[in-house]
Specification:
Blueprint (H helix, E strand, L loop, with lengths): L3 E7 L3 E6 L2 E2 H5 L18 E6 L6 H6 L2 H5 L2 E3 L4 E2 L3 E4 L22 E7 L3 E8 L5 E8 L9 H8 L4 H22 L7 E8 L1 H8 L19 E4 L12 E4 L9 H10 L8 E5 L3 E8 L2 E8 L19 E8 L2 E6 L7 E2 L1 H13 L14 E5 L2 E4 H25 L8 E5 H6 L2 H6 L10 E3 L3 H10 L9 H6 L1 E3 L8 H9 L7
């Protein structure tokens, strides 16, 4: 009997050949299957449908999937192994990753540089000519660490067990090194690569740099070492022509990482005489409020609802995801990515759906459904009462954080000239829907999608490093990190912000 078996994937039309007994998690992550709980069998995010062959039903399958689903062939990929020939149905991942092509002022310098935005879910790397500022190449990938958990706390949990941290460090270093190798393949002068700058949240900073994450697992969430880190490429296992220096920019405290520092550089909050804001909406919502000489930053645990996790039929922005919902003639109309059969809902669709439900009176200001225990969207996708509560928790945390930072800064939302929305979700969310649910209580013209400010800030840093460590020491001295949980008003304001605004008369 051969030790190799074939796995046919639809609708990709791809066949994988693997060793008999290979865990499906090891091979399906690269094909777009998500493992939100890190393959622990605690969710349904990795569901696959067996079209041919046999995958025995496991105890976790029975706990997480209904009998009709099991009978239809649905299984949890994280609990299965390839013991024979298989035909599996899965959707193709669609990149919702933001690059950056923003023009910016710089002082030319010789050589090449690479800027990397190391996100929890996605990675973006750009190769630049430092003499012209031109982008010579771009690489976009899913973060390979995500097979061990979609959110930061799942990643931390994995890192704290056995050799978990070393495995996560090796994964991300090898992946980014491979992306840079790929970028340099098409470069005319690869030996001129002199600088690599990385930015990311505090957990990504620690895992890439090989720093222990235990302090981030419990209150008061103080980083072990959040400073600027510099490596020789060879220290990371990268055999790159030019032997560049590799810099991971410093964090700002707690869960506010160097991606937010880069966002401040990109949006020039620190140079403005008017009050400005920066919000990055994700599992942890990072917020900055300030102007020249006074910047306050904070992180609030929004939970993964904006990324589709912990939502009963939630998913990332991929084929089959409801990404937009509008109210028309008293009914809901859904736009599905890839013009495919609906199979779930992503964050932007979730915010739209709840905003429409509020306008139609189907969802009350308290968050309770007016009738029944679910809201049908596009068959078979529905929103449950629990889904709406998850969104309330997420949006309440963000809205409360903004209110408290404004108060501590001594200003108000009316005095804020502009609120920059960073990252992919901030660029795809409908601002009117975000205002309707009370997530961003600002006039629409005040809120501005800002693109991938983390990547833009990393590119700006390429032109200031390694000279005296760049402007980061001085900039960090002007930024105050606020621990929202220690504010005596936080929990009261959080509860207030969990409700939805009343329907306009």
């Amino acid at each position: 009997m051969s030790d190799a078996v074939a796995i046919r994937l639809l609708p990709l039309g791809k066949t994988l050949t693997v060793e008999r007994g290979t865990p499906l998690q090891d091979v399906l992550f690269a094909q777009g299957v998500e493992f939100p709980c890190g393959g622990q069998g605690r969710c349904q995010g990795c569901r696959i449908k067996v079209l041919a062959g046999e995958l025995p039903i496991t105890p976790d399958d029975r706990r997480r999937l209904s009998e009709p689903d099991l009978a239809a062939g649905w299984r949890l990929a994280c609990r299965a192994q390839a013991q024979g020939e298989l035909g599996l149905e899965l959707a193709q991942w669609e990149a919702a990753i933001l690059g950056d092509d923003t023009a910016f002022a710089f002082t030319p310098r010789p050589g090449l540089g690479v800027a990397v935005d190391l996100g929890t879910t996605t990675l973006v790397a750009q190769l630049l000519d430092l003499a012209t500022g031109w982008v010579l190449g771009v690489r976009l990938e899913l973060n390979a660490q995500a097979r061990h958990g979609a959110d930061l706390m799942s990643r931390i949990d994995f890192a704290l067990v056995g050799e978990g941290r070393a495995a996560l460090t090796r994964l991300v270093r090898d992946q980014i090194g491979g992306m840079i190798d790929s970028l340099l393949e098409g470069a005319a002068r690869p030996e001129e690569l002199s600088q690599v700058v990385l930015v990311g949240n505090t957990v990504m900073h620690h895992l890439f740099c090989g720093i222990g994450v235990q302090p981030l697992a419990h209150h008061p969430f103080v980083p072990a070492d959040d400073g600027l880190k510099t490596f020789a490429a060879a220290e990371l296992g990268w055999q790159l022509a030019g032997r560049p220096q590799v810099h991971f920019l410093p964090c700002l405290g707690g869960f506010v990482g160097s991606d937010i520092l880069a966002g401040i550089l990109a949006t020039k909050l620190h140079e403005s005489d008017r009050w400005l804001g920066l919000v990055d909406l994700g599992t942890n919502g990072e917020i900055v409020i300030g102007r020249r000489g006074r910047l306050l930053c904070a992180s609030t645990a929004a939970g993964p609802a904006f990324e589709g996790a912990r939502i009963s039929m939630g998913m990332r922005a991929a084929t089959g995801a409801i990404a937009e919902v509008v109210c028309r003639d008293g009914a809901l109309h859904c736009r599905v990515l890839g013009h495919a059969q609906p199979r779930g809902i992503c964050g932007s669709g979730l915010v739209d759906a709840v905003a429409c439900g509020l306008d139609l009176g189907w969802i009350q200001a308290s968050g309770r459904l007016a009738q029944g225990d679910s809201l049908p969207l596009a068959d078979p996708v529905v929103l449950t009462q629990t889904d709406i509560r998850e969104l309330q928790l997420a949006k309440g945390a963000i809205a409360a954080g903004i209110r408290l930072l404004l108060a501590q800064a001594g200003t108000t939302g009316a005095e804020l000239e502009r609120l920059h929305l960073a990252g992919a979700f901030g660029n795809y969310i409908n601002r009117a829907s975000a205002r309707r649910i009370g997530l961003l209580d600002f006039p629409l013209e005040q809120v501005q999608p800002a693109g991938n400010t983390a990547l833009l800030g990393a590119k700006l840093a390429l032109f200031s490093l390694p000279d005296h460590g760049g402007p980061f020491a001085e900039l960090r001295r002007g930024i105050t990190h606020v621990s929202l949980n220690e504010d005596p008003d936080f929990h009261e304001i959080y509860v207030e912000e969990m409700g939805f605004p009343e329907r306009p008369s």
